[in-house]
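Our consortium's second objective concerns turning raw sequence data into structural hypotheses that experimental partners can test. To show how far this objective has progressed, the report includes one record in full. It was chosen at random from the queue rather than selected for favorable results. The single chain below, 952 residues long, was entered without modification.
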Amino acid sequence: MSTLLSSLGRWSYRHPWRVLASWLLALGLAGTGALVLGAGTDNSFSIPGTESQAGLEQLSRSFPQVSGTNAQFIVVAADGDHVTDDAYREHIEDTVDDLSDLDEVLAVTSPYDEMVTGMVNEDETAAIVRLQFDGEASDVSAETKDVLNAAVDDLAAALPDGSQTQLGGDLFALSMPTITITEAVGLLIALLVLIVTFRSFVVAGLPLLTAILGVGISMAGIFAATAFATVSSTTPLLALMLGLAVGIDYALFIMARHQDQVRDGVEPEESAARAVGTAGSAVVFAGITVLIALIGLGFAGIPFLTTMGIAASVAVAIAVAIAVTLTPALLGFMKGKVAGRPKKVRMPKKGAPVRAPRRAASARWVEGVTRRPVLTSLAVIIGLGIVAIPALSLNLALPNAGVLPKDSEARQSYDLVGEQFGPGFNGPLILTGTIVTSTDPLTLMEDLGDAVAQVDGVREVALSTPNETADTGIVQVIPETAPDDPATADLVRELRSHHDEWLDEFGIDLKVTGFTAVGIDISDQLGAALLPFGIFVIGLSLILLTIVFRSLWVPLTAAFGYLLSIVAAFGVVAAVFEWGWFADALHVAKVGPIISFMPIVLMGVLFGLAMDYQVFLVSRMREDYVHDPLSKDPETRREAALRAVRTGFTGSAKVVTAAGLIMFAVFVAFVPEGDSSLKPIALGLAAGIAIDAFLVRMTLIPALMAILGERAWQIPAWLERILPSVDIEGEAVERERHLAAWPGDDSVIAADELPIAGAAPVSLRLAPGGTLVATGASRGTLRALALTVTGRVAPEAGRLRTAGHLLPGRAAWVRAHVGCVLIDDPDTAVRDLDEALRGRTSLVVIDGIDRMSGAARDQLIARLRDAGSEVAVFASAMDADAARALLADAGRGAASVLSVETPGSRRDPRITTPPTGGLDSNEGSQSSTDANADTNQHIVADETIESTEVNA
């Protein structure tokens, strides 16, 4: 991956206008789609498969008057008056009659209706009028809302002085999140951090530019997608928040690496390619972890949450794509003007003693942390454990009008209803069931209502009646507690526990439903999903980090640190939103239960971001340890491990510190004036990032690594063998840089000490347009050689360059551009050769060419002749003479022969026939040297890089 990203970065650097135009075109297309297709967001929550959702669906079919969204207005009489007085009753009933004629209104319930109880409070000082609409809140037109507002205003004017009217209900409980000035403040803080990091205003602005462009594309795409999917209003802002944070950070990682390399004297184009290949590889890996965690939100089985995760993952994916393409393109515009202003070095006064250079703050910090690692670890663990204590009282619920700002009409109505009627009136429950078999539905529903009223937690039964066709009945229950009170959830469970009892007694299969019950079911399902989701996330981190770091202890410490970060973040959120600490300072509208999908979203997002910091810090430590000569000696490995922790931390701390500060600034900017649904998530992310970046990754992890010493990098041999190789540190890019001058000629195939299964290591050169036949070993060994030189099998050691590309790093390119024909059936070989020669290939590899005979042989000869002399041919055959004869008939001249040595044989793996057309004349000595090299020598990848620095 690193080599492909390096090539992508180089291409983007060379063609900046193409890359920029492509992304601007994507922005234009997405924006057009949003304008043309956008259908608006929808805050309706549903959860298929639950009892409450099934009840709503049943009501929508048989009792639509109570199934859709609702609105209500409350009338409070002036002091000394009663709402039952004619001065109130007449005007209220006139308003009820007028509203009944609205097209989208299914029913209006008068507080004076004899069939309904509880709509006038016990003191007769307040009355509630309820309206039922068809469909969800988003289906009600703005014109209907305007008419409703005007009607309530007219009623208020007609009522006696001193009375109050307030409009509210589910229809007006939706809050549409908007962008405020505080988000701009977050971006300003991010810009200041970038200026300090890069010491250049222009360079600092580039990550912001790329992040804003990526967010624009993702936001427009999300709004365009509303034409095809239901998207909640929180989704775009969550995508905006994540897109900005990761977009800035990912560009920061790449640009910081590029700036350091340019300052070290690397050419800007080469530096951009290396930066994308090294830091860009880590960016892609980190982005993938975030994507997997966000897509994992589907574990809960809740459609709106799954959509939220997919939308946020799209924003992150776009941020990754822009980071590895647009960032090097913008560097291409700037060329070498990225070094920034160097730090001023004060020269000592004449005669003054020369002071030792002041060590970096990061070096002093990590030395202090690792000097007493056990004490440091205990301090962090105990401290975060204390911070996590409030999380024990974490209560979850879906948002309602009670969490809106106090100046909101819906919030004022919510508070007024709770004050005059009790908190349960803001969240009634509905019991519904089929009564088609009943001969006396009215009496049946009355008896059922009486039974329900006896349940603890039920304040009153407001309505218990069959529908017009007497096939479905409903019982409307007013709880004693508010919709988001845990006691209301207990009441729902208590009512459901009577299901079998009431089925036996009344013959009704009752379902507890209503929007309050739906919210409770969603919260319960989300709570149940936390454990499997946590196992998925932590298990994923263990697997991915084991693959990356080839270690068991590093993943375990990373997962442990993540657990500390997440529970501490939960503790901070609970302390603010439930305990009320700093609630006024953060403009928290109401202290109480937290939005139910906060924990699972926070777990998913923070996991990906925490792995970012883990990768960037620990990969540098691993790199320093692997390349430290002391790590090769068992007696000095512990010293090398401790030194690697300190040097690796010092080398990456600046960038991780900047990234942590930027993410914190972006997330915390959404807290003071943010949407009530988004506030807890934003605060949790801000707290989680600060805790994870600065306390866990930059304090606890170095301390634990110091305790572990060299054991941190140990892994069982059997596990090492089965793990796939993932190069996120850019080792393949560094290997290419070290072997850039090898082999020093234009050979189309160059191999030194290449190990092949069943044979001694092979060395060879094949010039452009040349012909070479490999022979002398079993067919399996020769096929393994053919597959290796064409990138189908990765070489485990040695050096191999095919068609100018170093393997295994460039295996994908070689497979796509170098033809490979494996002859098992001569009848299909010609067709395979046609496919292999398609395009402008400079090399074709044919395994088992001596198997061709008859007409198939003639056709193969014709195809090779038509291919032209500029195409090099590498063939393998058990019968070298037959192969050379076929190639001679194809006009390839006298083919050279490579005799592959097998264990126990005495032949050298050298080219035995003079290099007529097979090798450049100046390659003879080189080939001889390679052939006579120690055939038992195996050069591992890391050693190859180091030895090449001398030999190349």
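The partners drew two points from this record. The two ends are 25 Å apart (CA to CA). Residues 906-952 have pLDDT under 50 and may be disordered. Both points have been shared with the crystallography group to help prioritize constructs.
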